[in-house]
Amino acid sequence: MIYSVLLGLAVSCLLFLYVRFPYFTQDFIFALRTFNVRRLVARFGRGTPCYTILDRFADAARSHPQKRFLVFEGELFSYRDARARGSGSGGVRGSAVSAHARRVCAPAGIVNLSAAVRGASEEAPPLSLRRDVSIQSPALYIYTSGTTGLPKAAVINHHRLWLTSFLQRMTGVSSRDVLYICLPLYHSAGFLAGLTGAMERGITVVLRRKFSASRFWDDCREHEVTVIQYIGEVMRYLCNTPKSERDRDHRVRLALGNGFRAETWGQFLRRFGNVRICECYGATEGNIGFINYIGRVTAIHKMLIPFTFIKFDPETEEPVRDPAGLCETGPLVAKINKIAPFSGYAKNHAQTEKKKLRNVFKKGDLYFNTGDLILADRDGFLYFQDRIGDTFRSRGTDWDGGSQAHRWDGV
User: Fold this and answer.
1) Which of 151, 280, 316, 405 has the fewest CB atoms within 10 Å distance of its CB?
2) Which UniProt keywords apply (predicted)?
3) CA 325, CA 24: separation in Å to the nearest integer?
4) CATH number of the domain encompassing residue 195
């Protein structure tokens, strides 16, 4: 009798969770992954020098030196090859980044990266050279226009580099996967979410110089790709290619990126098969990001982390404040704190301060202004609507509309 009662209670609890929280299982798994990532980042940052993504790459090279790391234009580089070519200059530049640099002519004041790598020693630099490098130290700069103005150098410290590199781990990429990157490596999507994320996972990267809709699936089949990256209209371009009997002849199981339109989402799945779409949201310099781990069409996240919306005046590009000077609800803003810091732009204090909003809901608080209009439904899903400011997106890059208007007389 008592077992029947306990069984009934258990079934009732499960039914309650399913009805009241239909995404409980996915939420719970995602929460565990988030906790694990934060635990790892905290551990990597305890020492000085901190444990960096290049240390992770070196460990991967020692663990599986013969495994393919990079496939580029017919050349194959194992983890050992890439480490040998890049260790003397501080990274895997010899195999990955310099491959893209070969087509760049070096004007005065610019170093030819390929030549520098070829002439570098294969010996790893002494640890003493980075003895003062902490988890908060700058790791690299990525130029971005943000939501307005000319490109600015966003400061990416090692903490932020790790968080972005863990995106693949968060979405279920394993060491057995093969990643296809056809996005530019000067962009955070291709370099951070793509290349350094692959280094964190210890997987193989198939790198293409630029996106080609006609060659995309042939490349995936040839190299047995299982994970692809997209941005903006890439998926629409693939859907616009002529149909083929081999449309579903591939091993791709996961597509990771942002900007997937609702009308293209269903068309892509119907044509190319059961590929899991993982839509993401974030800004290179931002302190907040979302991952669509549920799989709902065009949604970018469930509301699991704190953020809010404020009203915004598109004419002045300033938040709307009440008589007390506090903000009213509207576009997405994220609180700046130790968990979600904002590093700003290198040597550009004015633009850094412009992205900060003070006294938003109470005197003394501080928020990051994403400049993005986000729609939230009653179930807590978010949907990107538009970007405030004078930028437009083309080929995965934000361009300043004001500067382009001055460049072209007809605009």
Assistant:
1) 316
2) Ligase, Lipid metabolism
3) 39
4) 3.40.50.12780
CB of 91 closer than 8 Å to CB of 61: no
Token pair, residue 223, equals: 């190299």
- Residue-number span of the structural domain to which 308 is assigned: 136-403
Q: What one-character-per-residue DSSP string does 266-308 give?
A: HHHHHHH-SPEEEEEEE-TT-S-EEE--S--TT---BS-S--E
Contact 379, 372 (CB under 8 A): no
Total domains present in the chain: 1
Tell me how far apart the alpha carbons of residues 154 and 151 are, in angstroms, rounded to a whole number: 9
pTM of the predicted model over 0.85 = no
352, part of any domain:
yes
- The one-letter amino acid code at 42 reads A
Is 329 domain-assigned? yes
Strands 254-258 and 204-207: unpaired
First vs last C-alpha separation in the chain: 80
36: helix, coil or strand? helix
Query: pLDDT tens, 300-326?
Result: 665 555 577 766 666 766 766 666 665
Q: Quick one: 116 exposed, middle or buried, by C-beta within 10 A (0-12, 13-18, 19+)?
A: middle
Beta strands 332-335; 366-369: pairing state: antiparallel
**Has residue 410 been placed in a domain?**
no
Rounded CA-CA distance 305/321 in Å is 24
